[in-house]
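Pilot study result, target chain (153 residues):
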Amino acid sequence: MGFWNYLFGKRPKLSDAFFGEMTFIEVPNDPASSYFECERYFKPIDGLIELGVTGQLSGPMQRQKYFFTQLENDYQLIIAAVIPVIESEFQQWKPNFKLGNFEQEFKPVWLEIPTCDQRPVEWEIFFETVHDLNHHICVTMQDYRPLHVLMDG
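Predicted structure:
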């Protein structure tokens, strides 16, 4: 047994037909914040994206799978919504910044999939960008409306 497993215990894994192999991250002080980490194919980028799926050890819910599928299908709507807020954030430190081709300049690398039990659904998407390799851009969304942007790095 490795040092970290000895110190923190081995993290439970779950195999889900939709999300694949998932590692459960328990938040003992706030069980409602516990979640799964996994990777899944994301059609809009024709590749894998990391996911944080809020839930309990029993596994993800059907509505979370549906939400992920909606995000895939509506990705162009999401892009259209986030472009103005990302441009505005970049202009804070790069005056006159304008996006050329979003899909060439920004790649989604992380999606937070909440329990989706309340409307509107608040969730997050993280992007890497060619404009600053040292930062991730986190956009907090409410359904498909951006609430705020955070440059993390």
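One observation from the pilot: Residues 12-152 form one domain. A full batch analysis is planned for the follow-on phase.
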